[in-house]
Specification:
The complex is a heterodimer.
Chain A (H helix, E strand, L loop, with lengths): L10 E6 L5 H14 L4 E5 L6 H5 L4 E2 L4 E4 L2 E5 L2 H12 L3 H9 L1 H9 L3 H15 L1 E2 L2 E2 L3 E5 L3 H17 L4 H14 L4 E7 L3 H16 L4 E9 L9 H8 L5 H31 L3 E5 L10 H10 L9
Parallel strand pairs in A: 1-8, 1-9, 2-5, 2-8, 3-5, 9-10, 10-11
Antiparallel strand pairs in A: 4-5, 6-7
Chain B lengths: L4 H4 L5 E6 L5 H14 L3 E6 L4 H6 L10 E2 L2 H6 L7 E6 L2 H12 L3 H9 L1 H8 L4 H16 L4 E5 L8 H14 L1 H7 L10 H19 L1 H13 L4 H16 L3 E7 L3 H16 L4 E9 L13 H7 L5 H32 L5 E5 L8 H11 L3
Parallel strand pairs in B: 1-5, 1-6, 2-4, 2-5, 6-7, 7-8
Antiparallel strand pairs in B: 3-4
The chains are: A alpha/beta, B alpha/beta.
């Protein structure tokens, strides 16, 4: 793989099955980037304010992002608000915007039109990615906590779809520009998150195939919540013997617990191998961290693990 | 205290399995279908995730839009008596939508026009929301076919588990296109109060849209809406019928969660919404609960001796590590118990079914059958 590490790409989209830990991985990555000196913006798309649990500060909903750590800010995109903002910029006349926004017809269309909310969301991300202050970009890096796999891919391909549908006009031009950047592996990286479970791994493998088919730059897969074991292969036989022995119930339970620990770690290693073979992208493993609340140091541990990997932080 | 869920669902025609992503909804759906089939029902289970492993576990090469029969001999080999039948299929939104169009289109020409329209193709295959809408439509189709006693629906992994409840209405509203028709120059409706003002506003909005998107897109939307002319009624009748079915006593919603705070919070929100909208609730399934290790809270006395006897090279060290593993396993079981109690109280004592965590995901019918046994006496 010669593609640049995630650290060097301006836009990172984090995709994955629901429950796989997209928000955790996106947050840890954003924290790692900020610690590496990049001014980083973490964007939530599903507007569930999940990053609040991790940083202790709620993301801004639209408007100015909230600074949650030095060099790291969070924002939650609300597609209705973003639509209004978009129109306000496209249309020079304020009364016209008011008319549009107040029109019931417009709201019906905006709510139901397929792809519209994805389009304004991507448009908003684009605006943030291209915002400049003086000569410098406002954000060095943007990490997007994308919605669950199917909806996440819909988000990434919407610009292309709109370019196909819209024949001419500013929307087409803009969609074209967005599409180019999102497809460029030097600018954008897509990371797929999985957990060591059969269904999550097969979904990640299929997601990577779907992304490749659409020519989207898949950069890495992250295996989240990998269980490590303090037991070794040599422990298996004595533990198994004691687990089924006539010893005390607690002693047998302890041996059983040790054995389960060893099996869990082996199982997870097998899933990592399956993910690597199935996706053919670098797989980064991060440990299961029971406590991720602010101050626990859990998220910092994950950030360090991610940044130490060549595919993410370039080993920096 | 655990409920016999299969007993609870006796006589129901539709079971909707909902919950946050990653809690094992698909596997629970399959286990539920298997249990109902074992008890003698003709069951269809509709999965949403492209669950190849599940298909393999059920002995089916690949799940598709059409039902595949699960081999009874395979089920019986896992120790369950198979008195009924179980069919599995995977949702194909495009195929389902095409059938809906074929059914509702007034003639062949209208059908062809719609199927070729780019807006339709986008709508039916990629639009977020289409999957949710079609899941409910497919459920309706299978229910109406008369081929099944029970249809089990595994709901889409939406970013919000509640999305699919609103999908039929949202989609119908778009296809109906009241708003768009107003913009595009509707026929009829003239003479209504305020019509002129609306139209004036509409044409202004329209010219803005054309400026932004180009005339071609607007033309295509116009064509799309014209093609659907005469089908709106069919669509909205269909959406109303589906909603009626979901609200009826024929249906039960089963909410799946895991013994952790995040899925519990989502299950809670889902439960409240279902209650508020009068959807018939069946039970809460707490999946992957860590079992309580043996030996109560006792210390593992004699462990080191036992390990030495079993030939461990460093029995003292191994005993220490195994004791720590036991403590951790007990702590996990306690935390799970605590979470289950909390969610039970928060939801005002619903029927709760707990499913123990398996060492690995079920990759064979036998694994699914183990979950089935936790759901009720099959």
């Amino acid at each position: 793989m010669t593609s640049p590490p995630i650290l060097d790409r301006r836009l990172v989209f984090v995709l994955g099955k629901g429950g796989a830990g997209k928000t955790t991985v996106a947050s840890a990555m954003a924290l790692g980037l900020a610690d590496a000196g990049k001014r980083t913006l973490l964007i939530e798309v599903a507007s569930e304010r999940r990053t609040e649990v991790l940083f202790g500060v709620a993301p801004a909903v639209g408007g100015v992002p909230h600074e949650v750590r030095p060099g790291l800010a969070t924002l939650s995109i609300d597609s209705e608000k973003a639509t209004e903002e978009y129109l306000a910029r496209q249309l020079p006349m304020r009364p016209l915007v008011e008319l549009m926004v107040r029109s019931r017809a417009f709201h019906q269309v905006a709510q139901a039109a397929p792809g519209l909310s994805e389009l304004v969301t991507v448009g908003k991300i684009w605006d943030l990615a291209t915002a400049v202050k003086g000569d410098a970009p406002v954000w060095d890096r943007i990490v997007v906590d994308a919605p669950a796999t199917g909806h996440g891919i819909a988000l990434l391909e919407v610009a292309g779809r709109i370019r196909e549908l819209a024949g001419s006009g500013p929307i087409r031009e803009q969609a074209e520009k967005i599409e180019q950047v999102i497809h460029h592996p030097a600018a954008t990286g897509v990371v797929v998150v999985a957990i060591p479970e059969d269904l999550a791994v097969s979904e990640a493998v299929e997601a990577v195939a779907a992304l490749r088919e659409r020519d989207l730059p898949v950069a890495a897969a992250v295996m989240n919540a990998v269980r490590a074991s303090v037991f070794m292969d040599a422990d298996e036989a004595p533990l198994a013997a004691v687990a089924t022995s006539t010893g005390g119930a607690a002693a047998r339970a302890a041996a059983t617990a040790g054995l389960a620990d060893l099996m869990a770690a082996r199982h997870d290693q097998a899933e990592i191998a399956a993910l690597a073979i199935g996706t053919n992208v670098p797989v980064v493993s991060i440990p299961e961290v029971p406590d991720l609340r602010p101050g626990s140091g859990g998220l910092e541990r994950l950030a360090a693990a991610l940044m130490a990997d060549p595919a993410i932080g370039g080993g920096a | 205290m655990s409920t016999d869920l299969l007993q609870l669902l006796e006589g129901r025609r539709v079971v909707v399995v909902a919950g946050a992503g990653g809690v094992g909804k698909t596997t629970v759906s399959a286990a539920l279908a298997l249990g109902l089939a074992a008890r003698g029902k003709r069951v269809a289970v509709v999965t949403i995730d492209p669950a190849r492993r599940l298909a393999a576990a059920l002995g089916i090469d690949a799940l598709g839009d059409m039902p595949h029969r699960v081999d009874a001999a395979r089920v019986e080999a896992s120790g369950l008596a198979m008195l009924g039948t179980m069919d599995a299929l995977q949702l194909d939104p495009r195929a389902t939508f095409d059938r809906l169009v074929a059914r509702e289109a007034p003639d062949e020409a209208a059908r062809e026009r719609i199927l070729a329209n780019r807006i339709y193709r986008h709508l039916s295959s990629t639009a977020a929301g289409a999957q949710e809408f079609m899941a409910v439509e497919r459920l309706h189709e299978l229910h109406d076919s008369g081929d099944y006693d029970v249809v089990v629906l595994d709901t889409p992994p939406a970013r919000n588990a509640l999305d699919f409840l609103d999908a039929p209405e949202r989609m119908t509203r778009f296809v109906e296109g009241r708003g768009l028709r107003l913009l595009l120059g509707p026929r009829g409706g003239a003479g209504r109060m305020g019509w002129r003002a609306l139209q004036a506003g509409g044409s202004m909005v329209m010219s803005v849209l054309e400026r932004l998107t180009g005339a071609e897109l607007i033309g295509e939307i116009r064509e799309f809406l014209l093609s659907f002319d005469g089908m709106y009624q069919g669509f909205s009748d269909r959406a109303a019928a589906v909603n009626q079915l979901l609200l009826s006593d024929d249906t039960r919603f089963v909410v799946v969660t895991g013994p952790r705070p995040e899925p519990s919070a989502e299950a809670h929100a889902l439960w409240d919404r279902l209650t508020a909208d009068h959807y018939p609730l069946g039970a809460l399934v707490v999946n992957r609960v860590h079992p309580v290790p043996g030996g109560a809270d006792d210390a593992p006395d004699g462990l080191e001796e036992l390990l030495r006897g079993a030939g461990a090279p460093d029995p003292a060290g191994l005993a220490r590590r195994a004791t720590a593993a036991l403590e951790a396993a007990r702590a996990r079981a306690r935390a799970d118990r605590h979470e289950i109690d909390a969610v039970t109280i928060a939801l005002h004592q619903p029927h709760v079914v707990t499913v123990p965590a398996l060492e690995s995901d079920p990759v064979e019918v036998a694994g699914i059958a183990r979950i089935t046994r936790a759901l009720g006496a099959a």
